[in-house]
Amino acid sequence: MEFDIKGKVEELVKKIQESPELMKGFQEDPIKTIEKLAGVDLPDDKLQPLVAGIKAKLAASDIGSKLDGLKKLF
User: What is the pTM of this model?
Assistant: First the structure.
């Protein structure tokens, strides 16, 4: 069974960004939030790559929005 981590990261990031409640849950307990969103119950070590990918995407998105704000100053 092939699992597309990149595709799943994109899907989950979108869901998390659209919901302040999910964002808060992800910040407090990323593993539990991902299990809930993905509908899977896997060992934590199996979900860590997914969590790492989501955190990286969210951080990149946050940096991008802050840079957009700086552009408006100039």
Answer: 0.70
